[in-house]
Amino acid sequence: MGSVTYRALFFAAVSLAALVLLAPTFWSTAPKWWPWKEPLRLGLDLQGGTHLNYAVGIEQAVDNTIDRVGRDLEREFKGAQVGAFTVDRDGRKLLVRLANKDRRQDARDVVKSRFPNLVVVDAGGDADFAVDLTPAETERVRSGVVEQALQVIRNRIDQFGVSEPTVIAQGSDEIVVQLPGIQDPQRAKDLIGRTAVLEFKLVAQGPAAGTVDAPGPGMQVLPGAVNERGGRPKYLLERRPIMTGDVITDARVAPGGSLEGPVVEFVLDAEGTRLFGDATRANVQRQLAIVLDGYVESAPVIETPITEGRGIIRGRFDFKEAQDLANVLRNGALPAPLQLQEERTVGPSLGQDSIRRGSLSFVVGGVAVMVFMLVYYRGGGLIADAALVVNVLLLLGVFAVGGFTLTLPGIAGVVLTTGMAVDVNVLVLERVREELRLGKSARAAIEAGYERAKHAIFDSNVCTFGSGLILFQFGTGPVRGFAVTLCVGILTTLATGVYGTRVVYDWLASRGRLKSVSV
C-alpha cells in the first residue's frame, strides 16, 4: 500500500512540476512569486531570425601560423646572438639567411631546441637553410581552426546580446550561426565575420624604404581610414609588425575628443607590454601605424616610450563601431577568415504560422488518438489517455528545465512521441485482453499483460533511442532538434506508458476497486 502511494505521489509531483515549468510559456504575465519564469525556448524556424552559413579559410590559418613563427624565430635569433640575419617567406617555408656563415649550426640548434613544431629543410639558392611546420603541427592547426573560430564567434555573439544563439560546426570547414529574433542581420554579419587582425607597424623612412609607388624590399603600402574628403591616404610601412593584437587582454570604449568621437582603449599582457615598451623606446619620434584588418586606422608619432602596457585606437568611430571593435579585440581575433556562403532571414510571421500549423496538427492528431483509445479500450483507454497527457507535459517540461530549444522538427518529434506512446499502451492493453480471454482474474491479467508486453516495448524503444543518438551525433541543425525530442520522448513514454499506468492499476487494486478490467 505504502509503495503504491509513494509512486502515485511521485508521478503527481512530477506532473505538477512540469505544469509550473510550462506556465511562463503560455502565461506571459506570471506573478513575481512564481518559481519559474523562463518560457520554452523557440528555435529560428518558430521565432524568426537570421541563419548564416560560413566557410572557414583553413589554409589561411596555416599561413598566419607561419607568419607568427617567423616573428618568434627572429626574436629567438636575436636572443641567441647569431649575428645579422633575415627571415623571409617563400610559400610555406621560411628562408633563413645569415651574415656570419659560421653561426649556421648555432641557428639550426636554436630551431631544434626551441621550436619542436618546426623541421629544418634544405633551402637551395643563397639561403642557409629553411624551416617548415611539421606534418603533425600542420594537421593540429587545421583541426583546431574550426573549434577556435567557434569559440571566438560564441564570445562575440554573447556580448552582442542575441538570445539563445546557435553556433555549431557543419562538416570539416563550415560553421552555422542561427540568431533567433534578429531581423536585421547586417551588424551581426559585420561582427561575426570581422577578422579583427590588429598589427602595429612602423612607418617606413629612409632611402631604402622606397616610395608609395615603388616600395623597397621588406616594405608594403596600405590604405588608411577614409578622410573627410572621402579618400583614403596611403602609407608606406615596414612589412614586419613589431606586435600583433594577440597580446591584448582587454579593450573598451572611451570618450574621445569633441571632433573625433569615441576611441577604443586597450590593455596589453606582460609580453605585449615588454614588446611595446622596447619598440617605442627604440623608435622615439617615428610614426607607429595601428593597422586593423589591412587598414591604417591612425599613425601617431611616438613622443616618449610607452611602457605602461596601454594604448588607444582612434578612427572616427561611432559608438556602435567602437563597441563592436572593442568586443572583437577583447575576445580575440578569428584564427582564419570566414566566407559567407548562405544567408536566410526568417520572419516572425512565418514562425508564428509554423507554430500554429504544428500545434494544430498535434491537437487534431492527439484528440483523434485519444477518442479512438477511449472508444476502443474504454476504461483502459481512459488511463492511457491520461498517461499520454502526462507524457507530453513531461516532455515539454524537460525541454523547459534543460534549456533545449524547440524547433519545427521538434514539434514533429512530439507528434511522433505521441504515436509511440499510444503504441506502448496498445501493446499492454492487447496483452491484458488476451489474458482475460484465458479466464484469469483482473489482477493476474494486468500483471501478465505488463510482463508479456514489457520486452517488446523495451526492445523497440531502445532501438529507436539508439537511432536518435546517431542522428544527434552526426546530424546538424534541424536533424539534431528532432533527435533530442525523439530521445527525450522515448524516456518520458517509458516512464508514463509502462510505469505510470501500472501505478494507476496498482493503486486501484490496493483499494479493492480492481474487480474487473474495462478493455
Structure description:
This protein has helices spanning 2-26, 44-47, 58-80, 104-114, 135-160, 186-193, 270-282, 319-330, 348-377, 379-402, 408-437, 442-474, 478-510, and strands at residues 41-42, 49-56, 85-90, 93-98, 118-121, 129-133, 166-170, 174-180, 198-202, 219-223, 234-238, 243-244, 248-254, 263-268, 288-292, 295-298, 310-313, 338-346, 405-406. It is of the alpha+beta class and 519 residues long. It folds into three domains: 2-14 and 41-48 and 347-510, Up-down Bundle (Multidrug efflux transporter AcrB transmembrane fold), CATH 1.20.1640.10; 60-137; 194-344, Gyrase A, domain 2 (2-Layer Sandwich). The strands form six sheets. Strands 7-8-2-18 form a four-stranded antiparallel sheet. It has a four-stranded antiparallel sheet with strand order 3-4-6-5. Helix 3 packs across helix 5 (135-160) and helix 12 runs antiparallel to helix 13 (478-510). The chain is elongated and about 110 Å long. The chain starts with a helix and ends in a 9-residue tail after the last helix. The model has no long low-confidence stretch (mean pLDDT 82).
Name the features.
52% helix; alpha+beta; 13 helices; Multidrug efflux transporter AcrB transmembrane fold; four-stranded antiparallel β-sheet; Gyrase A, domain 2; 519 residues; 3 domains
